[in-house]
Sequence to fold (236 residues):
Amino acid sequence: MSLITFDLDNTLWDVEPVIVRADFAMENWFDDRFPGFSQKFNAQHLQNIKLELIAVDPSLKVDISRLRVEMYRKALILFGLHQEESAKVAMSAFAHFNEWRQKVDHYPHTLEMLKQLKKHYRLAVITNGNADVFHPYVGLGDVFEFAIRADKEGVVKPDSSLFKKAANTVNLLTESVIHIGDHPYDDVFGANQAGCRSVWFNRHGARRWKDDWPGRPDAEIHSLVELPSVVAYLTK
Fold:
């Protein structure tokens, strides 16, 4: 039996509105506890803190959850909190952010498509993000066997080790893995260089494959409803 692996953000849902809502929620969270915080540390200021932290510790770019905690911690120190208090508050802040991070809106037909695939294939996740498919808000815990997250592994797609780990988890060769994702480099190139096949999710057909992008997907879809028939063709 083949393993079908999925990217999450911008493959099963649009991630931008999720992060926008979560950031709005965080503004309220901070201002309820530290009036004036969000005015002093607006989105651009927080982004600059992120970049400064990555410059000092490049490993934070891989672990986006830890990066956000450190961003909050640094901002709180600059706001005037002591080291110990800032660390505790930063963890509480991230917990609140993370709840909002999971409040995703699936693309149309996502759950039906996954349930249809699950009848014939094993399903898993390979993501560079920190969405949790087993969280009740995401609501996909019944269809996926496991999830491989870059922030837990210390490497990000397109690193081939993530795709190989997925195959090894279910005792399959990488050629028995089909990966679906929206990103030409992280998903398509990453899967192909690991020996997996790839399906490029080019939503609504809005993009064209560029000649300077490495490799080519084994298939391209514009809607998730196309996926079961495409996977069936690739696994004949």
The mean pLDDT is 97. DSSP finds ten helices and six strands in the chain. Residues 148 and 166 are 7 Å apart (CA to CA). The longest strand covers residues 122-127.
